[in-house]
């Protein structure tokens, strides 16, 4: 911890953070560009500030042997008793962990593997082709950059990212890069189908009609995000993704076998090792809001690693920054005299815009919307 704090001391007469950030962004080569250039010491813009180091100092990793629930969806539509058991498992996981893994989810393993290959192909193609897509204009159909909060976060994360809104208004095929175009379109269709199934089960877990969350348009938007975490020469000084929670209703995460994802529960960091063939599901802030805190959106992070690259695909069920007038607040059927609404109503656009404006600062956006 001392090494981190000493190396991340912001008081430096020679360190002009704003200029360093701009110079890094102007390369349009991302973190991968640094690694390709043979960097052996990570630039100071990536160093974890002492404030964050202090905040996490009291948190141990895996004090207790926790294991994220793995839920098998096989046969769920043909056996009512089995369905009740699975709904109970999803309810328990959503109320306590905010995370669970699913197997027999209907997405072929070969398709998942090809999706990860597609992300790698995009990042590992010729730089001049890739740089065409580099932008901070979030209205573009395909956005590639490094760190959406590069200029506002306390420290840059050791990762590059691309994203597209695949629903409700998906890009035309020719607007997506050839390296990942076909598989991204195909995989997104499968994730939309899985998301509908999960939202039905989550509705039932809340004691609501099966289509309640879908009727609320929780499945109308899908944001596809491809992350690339290059090998890091000094992983103890930085993070792949800082502590945060997701600003979605629901997140479906596909990750490779390198690992590094951790969730923050009971004041400790808990490893979430990848399970073969499984997809990781987590409750987002918006689902915690509409469930009036019954379901939990848990903070998580990704460690930097000497091994790499780590590749993951996060699909967020949310219309994100697409302007919408629909208001979301705690579901009326869940409100009682003993359980009054804990949040004010908001639009998805307002919620996500607030989250984007503050970046990955380790503070839940939900606090801003508390009554």
Task: Give structural attributes.
371 residues, alpha+beta, Jelly Rolls, 8-stranded mixed sheet, 5-stranded mixed sheet, 11 helices, 13 strands, 18% strand, disordered N terminus, oxidoreductase, 2-oxoglutarate-dependent dioxygenase activity, Oxoglu/Fe-dep_dioxygenase_dom, vitamin c, iron
What does this structure look like?
A hairpin with a 2-residue loop joins β9 and β10. The protein has helices spanning 2-7, 17-26, 30-36, 50-55, 80-96, 109-124, 127-131, 181-205, 212-215, 285-290, 348-358; strands spanning 60-61, 70-72, 99-103, 143-145, 160-167, 222-229, 239-244, 250-255, 261-265, 268-271, 279-283, 300-303, 310-317. α5 packs across α8 (181-205). The protein is α+β, with helices and mostly antiparallel strands and 371 residues long. The chain is built from eleven helices and 13 strands. The chain has one domain: Jelly Rolls (Sandwich), CATH 2.60.120.330. InterPro entries: DIOX_N, IPNS-like_FE2OG_OXY, IPNS-like_sf, Oxoglu/Fe-dep_dioxygenase_dom. GO terms for molecular function: 2-oxoglutarate-dependent dioxygenase activity; L-ascorbic acid binding; metal ion binding. Residues 218-320 form the Fe2OG dioxygenase domain. Keywords: Dioxygenase, Iron, Metal-binding, Oxidoreductase, Vitamin C. This is 2-oxoglutarate-dependent dioxygenase.
């Amino acid at each position: 911890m001392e090494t981190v704090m000493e190396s991340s001391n912001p008081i430096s007469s020679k360190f002009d953070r704003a200029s360093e950030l701009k110079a890094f962004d102007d390369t349009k080569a991302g973190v991968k560009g640094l690694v390709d250039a043979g960097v052996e010491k990570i630039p100071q813009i990536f160093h974890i500030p002492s404030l964050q180091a202090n905040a996490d100092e009291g948190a141990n990793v895996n004090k207790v042997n926790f294991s994220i629930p793995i839920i098998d969806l096989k046969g769920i539509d043909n056996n009512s008793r089995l369905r009740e058991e699975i709904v109970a498992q999803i309810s328990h996981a959503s109320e306590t962990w905010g995370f669970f893994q699913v197997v027999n989810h209907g997405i072929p393993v070969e398709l998942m593997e090809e999706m990860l290959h597609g992300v790698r192909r995009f990042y590992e193609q010729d730089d001049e082709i890739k740089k065409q897509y580099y932008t901070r204009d979030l209205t573009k159909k395909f956005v590639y950059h490094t760190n959406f909060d590069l200029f506002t976060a306390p420290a840059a994360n050791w990762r590059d990212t691309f994203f597209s809104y695949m629903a409700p208004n998906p890009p035309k095929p020719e607007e997506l890069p050839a390296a990942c175009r076909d598989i991204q379109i195909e995989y997104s269709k499968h994730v939309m189908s899985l998301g509908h199934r999960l939202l039905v089960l989550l509705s039932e877990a809340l004691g609501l009609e099966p289509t309640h969350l879908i009727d609320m348009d929780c499945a109308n938007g899908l944001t596809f995000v491809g992350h690339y975490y290059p090998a890091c020469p000094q992983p103890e000084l930085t993070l792949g993704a800082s502590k945060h929670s997701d600003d979605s209703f629901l997140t479906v995460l596909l990750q490779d076998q390198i690992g590094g994802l951790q969730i923050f529960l009971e004041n400790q960091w808990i490893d979430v090792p990848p399970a073969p063939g499984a997809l990781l599901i987590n409750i987002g802030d918006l689902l915690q809001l509409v469930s009036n805190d019954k379901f939990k959106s848990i903070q998580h992070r990704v460690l930097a690693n000497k091994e790499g690259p780590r590749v993951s695909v996060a699909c967020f069920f949310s219309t994100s920054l697409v302007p919408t007038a629909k208001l979301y607040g705690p579901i009326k059927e869940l409100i009682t005299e003993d359980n009054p609404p804990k949040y004010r109503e908001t639009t998805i656009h307002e919620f996500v815009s607030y989250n984007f404006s503050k970046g990955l600062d380790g503070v839940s956006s939900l606090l801003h919307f508390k009554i």
